[in-house]
Amino acid sequence: MTIRVIIVDDQAMVRAGFAALLAAQSDIDVVGEAPDGKKGVEVSRSTHPDVVLMDVRMPEMDGLAAARALLNPPPGVVHLPKVLMLTTFDVDDYVYEALRAGASGFLLKDAPPADLISAVRVVASGEALLAPSVTRRLIADFAKQRPAPRKDQSLQLNGLTPRETEVLVLIARGLSNQEIAERLVLAEQTVKTHIGRVLSKLGLRDRAQAVIFAYESGLVTPGEQ
Fold this sequence. Notes:
The protein is α/β, with parallel strands linked by helices and 225 residues long. The protein has helices spanning 12-23, 37-47, 63-71, 93-101, 113-124, 132-143, 151-157, 162-172, 177-184, 188-202, 207-216; strands at residues 3-8, 28-34, 51-55, 82-87, 105-108. The N and C termini lie far apart (39 Å).
């Protein structure tokens, strides 16, 4: 299956470079591009991409506002693409808010070309792209600034089994499925099953939102190992 991608970035050279790199892949088709968030939303609504590569800082409408518009569309709009945020900084408050809005992850603009290609494939498959080292810094930094744990979220945690709670904690600490399986001495498929149940019970879209939930509910606090 071909992955349909659009690139939203205010720098023409960045768009051209990313487009050339991705279009050279047999399973990726670049179907559009835009220089700002507002046009990015328009292009996405007309081309129905699987993945939107979205720069964080742009004129007219920034990437955060555009991500919110795409992931929480008005009535009648049924297409929901995966949104992958592009950022120059490894810790960025815009990215944190984008994850809360439902973005599937983020990628540093100076990442190696192979990482960009892999990121598009990972996000298109329905997984969240959260590099463990960056995730820990990002979430820990902003979790410190969040208000006290929300009671409604704390109550939702009561619906999880002890094993599901354990898996959620490890997700929040940035472990991959394979690492969680090794830590808990489980099959990787079993870990995937637990993650699916956690997302379903908590009403979460993907792994990215699970990380945010774990911190905001107080299940995990910054600095814990």
